[in-house]
Amino acid sequence: xxxxxxxxxxxxxxxxxxxxxxxxxxxxxxxxxxxxxxxxxxxxxxxxxxxxxxxxxxxxxxxxxxxxxxxxxxxxxxxxxxxxxxxxxxxxxxxxxxxxxxxxxxxxxxxxxxxxxxxxxxxxxxxxxxxxxxxxxxxxxxxxxxxxxxxxxxxxxxxxxxxxxxxxxxxxxxxxxxxxxxxxxxxxxxxxxxxxxxxxxxxxxxxxxxxxxxxxxxxxxxxxxxxxxxx
Length: 231
Hints:
Elements: E1 12-15, E2 22-23, H1 25-39, H2 57-62, H3 68-82, E3 91-92, H4 96-105, E4 110-117, H5 118-127, E5 136-140, H6 149-160, E6 169-173, H7 176-184, E7 189-192, H8 201-208, E8 216-219, H9 222-229
Parallel strand pairs: 1-4, 1-6, 4-5, 6-7, 7-8
Antiparallel strand pairs: 2-3
Helix pairs in contact: 1-3, 6-7, 7-8
């Protein structure tokens, strides 16, 4: 993994969506409850819910021992609600729209790399008038079997025509799967603490993903992220 300077104007910045750019907790958790009810499964207590915001849906169902065809049924039930109303139960984190606008004004290349269904991710970003600022919006696509974060990031890099062996690239995300997926593509991650990671999750993810010490950043606020990105 190359040393990356996130403040370098040539550094490409990939953003996660849920828990990083937007606060999607209500829409995701309410739709997941709907899916569990449709499956006849018990609804977990409140401590469970932050863990499902960000990772691929099949991984979230697996946390409850739901796999295979049952998980596929759960995903369909989830989307029954989320794709109609859940995606609107969402808000842009304070200061994030302005940060993205300033990155665009500075000529920085930015992209979305999310485990969310790509069509829905684009719909959300268009709803909040953020889509035009990104060079590409890359998400999960069942038709081609793309759901793991590493696969999404790899596809985003392919579309951008950039390689971490030739160009400075950094991921911005709030969960361990962001760090792990980016590391699998030789891309370091700026971890953000306003999302849904449990205490110590981002630090541990840097450790188990083998990210070098000089490619580790954890920021506590959008102004802190601005400072790291140099805008």
